[in-house]
Amino acid sequence: MSKVHDVAVVGAGPAGLAAATTTTSMGLATVVIDDSPSPGGQIFRAITTTPLRRPEVLGRDYWRGADLVRPFRPCGAEYLPATTVWAVARRGDGAFDLGVSAGRPGARIGGFFAARTLIVAVGAIERPLPFPGWTLPGVMTAGAIQGLLKSSALVPSGSIVLAGAGPLLWLAAWQLTNAGVRVDRVLETIPRGRLAEAMRHAPGFMFSGYLARGLDLVRTVRRRVPVVEHVEALHASGEGRVRRLRFAVAGTWSEAPVDVLVLSHGVVPNIHLPAALGCDLAWNRERSAFQPVADAWGGTSVEGVFVAGDGAGIAGVDAAAARGRLAGLAVANALGRIDGARRDAEASKPRQALAHALRGRPFIDALYRPAEAFLRPDGETIVCRCEEVTAAAVRAAVRTGAVTVAEVKAATRCGMGPCQGRSCLHTLAELVAAERGVTPADVGVPSIRFPVRPVTLAEVASWPAHAVAGAREERDAGRP
Amino acid sequence: MSVAVDVAIVGGGVVGASLAWGMRSLGARLALVDAGDLRAASQGTFGLVWVQGKGLGSPAYVDWTLRSARTWRTLAGELREHAGVDVALEQPGGLHACLSAHEMEARAAHLDALFAQAGVARYDVAMLTRGQLAQRLPQLGPDVAGGSFSPLDGHCNPLRLVSGLHEGLRRAGVRRLRRRVSAIEPSAGRFRLHAGDAAVDAARVVIAAGRATPGLAASLGLDVPLVASTGEVMVLERMRRFLPFPLETIRQTDEGSVLVGDSHEPRDDAALDCAVLGAIARRAQRILPVLAGVRVVRAWAATRVLTPDGFPLYAQSPSHPGAFVAVCHSGVTLAAVHAHALAPAILDGALPPSLAPFGPSRLADVRAAA
Amino acid sequence: MFERLPDATTEPVAVTIDGAPFEARAGDSVAAALLAAGRLASRTTPASGAPRGPFCMMGVCFDCLVEIDGVPSQQGCTVAVAPGMRIVTQRGARAAEDPSS
Ligand SMILES: Cc1cc2nc3c(=O)[nH]c(=O)nc-3n(C[C@H](O)[C@H](O)[C@H](O)COP(=O)(O)OP(=O)(O)OC[C@H]3O[C@@H](n4cnc5c(N)ncnc54)[C@H](O)[C@@H]3O)c2cc1C
Ligand SMILES: Cc1cc2nc3c(=O)[nH]c(=O)nc-3n(C[C@H](O)[C@H](O)[C@H](O)COP(=O)(O)OP(=O)(O)OC[C@H]3O[C@@H](n4cnc5c(N)ncnc54)[C@H](O)[C@@H]3O)c2cc1C
Ligand code: FES
């Protein structure tokens, strides 16, 4: 606990790596804490360790990750892989204590780091695609399938169907087929007419660099795999694991056998850490997601806490790296290492990169805005995977008087399981809003507190005592 | 919107909702006005229906608590029948664990003093040695010296209690308004509650607004002193049921989650303090070492509705008859008497002499002494 | 339901799954090893007893809970396999007692 770092960067994805490379180049004592075993974050998962030997399977963009990791290695930051930040507390002197957890089952060790500032670069998590049967074994996310491919060279076999909407759906289909996997179908859940709506944002998209890459990839997948468009409902079933998938287009249901069903519904910011830190959150209407409120440097409503990358708002890998650099510069300035003029000068390149990266976003956001049926499910569809709370139960709670997300949680246990609401928080907000006829911004920001990852009681017990009056280890003998 | 009723209850936490529950079938037209505060004590409560050890300094509180615990089953039955909600009441007894010979002595002395009070009849509670306790709960840690056990203690699911009361009130047709009352204006022997775009006109008003009660009650000539005391609670992942009874600081819910609490911190914000969670965790894993490797899924802090002497305050305004306050710690434990004894008394228009010990005068004495 | 690509070039790691020997590979998480072993389902839920298996593979969903070396309720997707590791699929809520302790 003795050393106080200038900055702690949480997350070693594109944003965190860029941030740390920037802060160390400014001479700031930097610690990078990341719960993955190797640097790179979600997109560059296992970039330094992947057993895959054919680069073309994952594509050029994946191997670009090496360019990001290379300067990080020697940058001088203290790096803690496979380590989770589970709580942060503000100390009397204004610095932060970070509780971290690492180790193997049965031998988790709690540890503590102190830092004067925080850059939270915790990335995104996948948006759920809830429908009846989506909890069955054999139904997995596109990110999961990518992870298995990148880390273990494992690919699904048997009847394989991909369903959902968004760039990762196409990317996963492309990577799987590159690896020689036969994909039965891609079911796209974008409603009819959406493309026309999105077209008004097309000019920006044209110049974004996404276009060429994206179109090429989609075209290739379409050549390899039958694609069904405008899928408006899904229903998976099977004893013990998924076996059949029914899907509806224009009111007509079809059925297909399936062994592995891969879902992708875009990504949403991983808000637990900034939320528990007390950073203000806002509802982003275009992306149907909560995100931390941040200024142009990633500065949040909590002094000394900066956010960067997809965790600050979904914008993709290039934007993540650019915002990581900007947050690094802001921290260097806040700590007096560089003046405002130098910060602004150094910021011009990342700002350009950011602007370029953001140009295509409005089109992508508009095109891939989740369809109503999957954003706000109905009936017996499970919303909360942990506590097995259905959409009907959530809706009933609102109809009988619950007004806020918190009240629905209390009434139904939705969001109270070990995933701490990560899988259901957005669906819950959407459902409460839909039932009340308001927007998710009106149903109360979910209350998220530490621990932001479940840790053992023993790890909590390792938090050092301080002189809080009333935190008595010896209890009094009785209550009044 | 304007509503006219016989009784308006301000606050829909466990206290206000229990009172409304007790009144719902007695023929009065009711309105329950609640602001929906997330930080309400009833959202952060531990869920014990607890008897042992309470009431040193107030023999009446010993009786009141006992009476509630003994009749709680009736309330649970009503909620099952009229709200369709099982509040998971279990009263298998409860343990206050002691981690040293010193704590054992202090606990025994506390109980002796409790029962030495005039008018307090001894109830079933016993100091048990570690060996005796280990027979009932083999998982107790080696640091546990012993503890006091009472078969009268129990617990329930407090979130389901509050939502069950509300569901029952809804089914009974009780008017529930989701508003914050900003002012209560007495006029011509009645009360006018201002709540945003709504006004409620009532012959009687009961303020059971938790920590917001003092501000609302002051204008009606009622002094409600509260002290600050925040408690923190951790929820551990679900386990197969292994705790046969609740401990005063550790209990397993009907769903299998284990709750570990609670602290007494002299502050009135509901921020989590990791250092306090650490202290709570250290003590819990000494009591039940099997919990050390179990994961903490959630944690929260909440501030108690606590009077300076810790006992309930029930009062009718002398200057504005018809205006009542009801605040207490242990609103879960007392839910049964609130519904079945306090609610009818308020409807009668006068608090009976048996409730006089919970009146404001004793706090005036405390204040004068301080 | 999952198979290893031929270009995978990693060390074998011998583990047991529900007592039966299985050869995982270095770099596998426990959840990946289960999938490689053909186990799509690796636990049942405490709430209803429904079968579940790895879903997100990034530590978010908690559907991959298994017992690892005697310690129940571990997130299989976040733990790397190690030689001799004992992996046991889990039914319902964990027990209070660690069998290893
Ligand atoms: C599953 C998944 C797969 C994706 N695949 C692709 C892809 O193939 N191509 C693409 O262009 N985009 C992909 N994306 C989008 C991608 O997230 C962004 O483009 C980019 O990686 C964002 O970078 P980042 O640095 O903001 O976050 P990330 O790369 O997500 O990095 C965040 C890091 O923080 C760690 N972390 C989170 N919380 C904690 C904590 N409490 N303690 C310690 N560490 C923590 C995470 O483990 C992770 O390593 C994917 C997103 C997801 C969720
Ligand atoms: C950590 C902790 C552990 C506890 N453990 C136990 C236990 O194990 N057993 C037990 O019996 N008790 C326990 N208690 C005590 C118990 O929870 C409280 O006694 C009880 O919740 C108080 O309920 P209440 O309705 O008076 O107050 P609250 O729950 O605070 O409710 C007050 C209500 O009034 C509303 N309100 C406030 N202002 C206004 C306004 N102006 N207009 C309209 N509405 C308003 C709020 O929205 C709120 O719903 C515990 C308390 C804490 C904090
Ligand atoms: S598979 Fe989701 S947490 Fe492991």
Describe the structure.
- The complex is a heterotrimer of chains A (480), B (370) and C (101).
- Chain A has 480 residues and is of the alpha/beta class.
- In chain A, the strands form 6 sheets. In chain A, strands 1, 2, 3, 4, 5, 6 and 20 form a 7-stranded mixed sheet that branches. A 5-stranded parallel sheet of chain A has the order 8-16-10-11-12. A 3-stranded antiparallel sheet of chain A has the order 13-14-15, with no helix packed on it.
- The model of chain A is unreliable at 467-480 (pLDDT under 50).
- With 370 residues, chain B is α+β, with helices and mostly antiparallel strands.
- Chain B has 3 domains: 2-80 and 158-225 and 309-369, FAD/NAD(P)-binding domain, CATH 3.50.50.60; 94-151, no CATH class; 230-303, D-Amino Acid Oxidase, subunit A, domain 2 (D-Amino Acid Oxidase, Chain A, domain 2).
- Chain B has 9 helices and 17 strands.
- Chain B has helices at residues 14-23, 59-83, 101-116, 130-136, 158-171, 213-218, 274-287, 335-348, 361-369; strands at 2-10, 30-34, 48-49, 94-98, 126-129, 146-150, 154-155, 175-178, 183-187, 190-195, 198-207, 230-236, 250-252, 258-260, 295-303, 313-316, 323-327.
- In chain B, the strands form 4 sheets. In chain B, strands 1, 2, 8, 9, 10, 11, 16 and 17 form an 8-stranded mixed sheet that branches.
- In chain B, a hairpin with a 2-residue loop joins strand 10 and strand 11.
- The longest helix of chain B is centred in the N-terminal third of the chain and has 25 residues, at 59-83.
- Chain C has one domain: 2Fe-2S iron-sulphur cluster binding domain, sarcosine oxidase, alpha subunit, N-terminal domain (Ubiquitin-like (UB roll)), CATH 3.10.20.
- Chain C has one helix at 30-36; strands at 2-4, 12-17, 20-25, 43-44, 51-52, 65-68, 71-75, 86-88.
- In chain C, strand 6 and strand 7 (71-75) form a beta hairpin.
- Chain C is globular, with a radius of gyration of 13 Å.
- Classes of the chains: A alpha/beta (480), B alpha+beta (370), C mainly beta (101).
- The interface between A and B is large, with 49 and 67 residues.
- Bound molecules: flavin-adenine dinucleotide (2 copies) and FE2/S2 (inorganic) cluster (FES).
- One flavin-adenine dinucleotide binds next to helix 1, strand 2, strand 12 and strand 15 of chain B.
- Residues 10-16, 33-37, 40-42, 44-48, 50, 180-181, 208-212, 216, 231, 233, 261-262, 302-305, 327-333 of chain B line the site of one flavin-adenine dinucleotide.
